[in-house]
Write a structure and sequence with these properties.
With 349 residues, this protein is of the alpha+beta class. 54% of the residues lie in helices and 13% in strands. The strands form three sheets. The chain has a three-stranded antiparallel beta sheet with strand order 3-4-5, with no helix packed on it. Strands 6-7-8 form a three-stranded mixed beta sheet. Strands 1-2 form a two-stranded antiparallel sheet.
Length: 349
């Protein structure tokens, strides 16, 4: 991916149209009266002795694919165990959890595929590469959680009037195995795949956690039925688990949708960025400021800085780039420097 910071030199009284990015992430470059070189290592050098370089790489976490693969294998195995166990015992809690785990197995596989596709290099056709595939995978995973929760509640309501007898002892044994496996999968995703920092991994992690909740629910239902022969506990607990799944799914869907809509990253306050840029000596106005997320852990920024005539444009630009990176953690910045001689029309976004 060409995650460059574009710097410019504007001789006094002249205008150079520097790279500008709109909110959809596209970039257009025009250069006048300046020399601009760009290397693959993201080093930028310009005339008048200005240089700005950094080594930038985008990585989710060490061994992130390994963590996903471990979770995928475990989840797939427990899915079959709970499915046949649910058929044998007649437990809706087990059957619903196995159906949920079927979705989780597919979701984990999708997350793994998305991670592999996301590292494909950028091209002229896809200038940002394929990083957004991970966000789309997270959105899909969130939607499937909603569908599964709806199915569980539908089946549960069908059983309220005439709950069937359930082999609670066998059900509890299978649920215990499922819970242990889910906890191992969750640990694998959290420790080896960076579930905290990557929405794609987190969506897969939430699938696994909701599986663990399903196993806990099945254990609780089995204990109640075993002690009191109250079989309506099975659909009741299934509904409670489904509601917990919906709550987790909504968080993933909302964040994925926010990213796809080019929303400002939750960790960045756009007003604070603007205030900080205005503190730079010579900066009179900051406008057309856009901040968005390309994928988890990779934010981008573009904007126009109106500076006082006669200011050293390279010095102002260098300070702005450094400020944005150090204070807000944004390395992919595209800033256009303007003075009183620069006039441009109203931008739609």
């Amino acid at each position: 991916m060409n995650n460059s910071k574009m710097n410019n030199v504007i001789p006094s009284g002249q205008h150079q149209n520097v790279t500008a990015s709109n909110s959809s992430g596209s970039e257009h470059a025009g250069h006048e009266n300046a020399e601009h070189t760009h290397s693959d290592s993201h080093a930028h050098s310009h005339s008048e002795g200005h240089s700005h370089s950094h080594s930038h790489s985008h990585s989710h976490a060490p061994d992130n694919k390994k963590g996903l693969l471990i979770a995928l294998i475990i989840t797939g195995g427990i899915m079959f165990l709970e499915f046949f166990g649910g058929l044998f015992t007649g437990s809706l809690a087990l059957l619903s959890d196995s159906g949920h785990m079927l979705s989780d197995t597919a979701s984990l596989a999708l997350s793994l595929v998305a991670m592999i596709i996301a590292v494909k290099p950028a091209s002229a056709k896809n200038s940002y590469g394929f990083h957004r595939f991970e966000i789309m995978a997270a959105l899909f995973n969130g939607v499937t959680l909603f569908v599964i929760a709806g199915f569980i509640m539908y089946e549960a309501f069908q059983r309220f009037s005439a709950p069937p007898a359930v082999a609670s002892g066998t059900m509890m044994l299978i649920a215990s195995v499922g819970l242990l496996a889910n906890l191992v999968s969750a640990w694998s995703l959290m420790r080896k795949s960076g579930a905290k920092d990557n929405i794609n991994i987190r969506s897969a992690y939430l699938h696994v956690i909701s599986d663990a909740l399903g196993s806990v629910g099945a254990l609780a239902a089995g204990l109640i039925m075993n002690l009191f022969s109250w079989y309506v506990a099975d659909p009741i607990i299934s509904v409670l688990v489904a509601l917990l799944i919906l709550r987790s799914a909504w968080g993933v869907i909302k964040q994925a949708f926010h990213i796809l809509m080019e929303g400002t990253p939750l960790s960045v306050n756009a007003e604070e960025v603007k205030k900080a840029l205005l503190q730079i000596e010579g900066v009179q106005d900051v406008h057309d400021l856009h901040i968005w997320t390309i994928t988890s852990g990779l934010d981008a920024l573009s904007g126009h800085l109106l500076i006082r005539d006669g200011m050293n444009t390279e010095q102002v630009l260098q300070q702005a780039l450094q400020l944005v990176e150090e204070n807000f953690g944004i390395q992919h910045s595209t800033l256009q420097i303007e003075n009183s001689a620069v006039k441009h029309g109203h931008l739609p976004v």
